[in-house]
Design brief:
Blueprint: E1 5-10, E2 15-22, E3 24-29, E4 32-36, E5 43-56, E6 59-73, E7 76-81, E8 84-86, H1 92-107, H2 115-136
Parallel strand pairs: 1-7
Antiparallel strand pairs: 1-2, 3-4, 3-5, 5-6, 6-7, 6-8
Helix pairs in contact: 1-2
Length: 137
């Protein structure tokens, strides 16, 4: 039997995946996607915003992961994401409305707007929409 990885996906809100045996994990590393197979060298990598995918017995699952870091150690991949959501659960219309509201607030010239936070929220909404669209291809 082929060797497996063990995947854990943890966010500040809850643990989304616990000790799941998988064949492969693809992480949205800060500088690009990073594939992990059994026997991978020990590493810690900072995560960007994008698609976290894993494959088990030919079936792929996908999450939108938004920041954090991942640790690969002894065929275990521990992902500590700032936020993550299953691609199938992302509401594309809700994300579009969120983007519009954020863009409107940025163009309103309101002095109370935290521009860095608004920019981060826009990037997160765009990343979620990209993962959702990728799932429909």
């Amino acid at each position: 039997m082929a060797k497996k990885l063990t995947l854990n996906l943890i966010t500040p809100e809850k643990q989304l995946i616990t000790d799941k045996p998988v064949d492969m994990v693809i992480l949205p590393a800060l500088l690009g996607e990073m594939g992990v197979l059994p026997g991978h060298v020990q590493t810690v990598v900072q995560l960007g915003m994008g698609s976290l995918r894993y494959e088990t017995d030919g079936k792929e699952e996908e999450f939108a992961a938004l920041g954090g870091f991942a640790e690969v150690l002894n065929d275990t991949v521990n992902v500590f994401a700032e936020s993550a959501g299953l691609a199938e659960e992302i509401d594309e219309e809700k994300e579009r409305q969120r983007l519009k509201a954020l863009k409107d607030s940025l163009s309103s010239q309101d002095a109370d707007i935290d521009f860095e936070l608004a920019e981060l929220e826009i990037k997160q909404a765009l990343a979620r929409m990209k993962v959702k669209k990728r799932k429909h291809l």
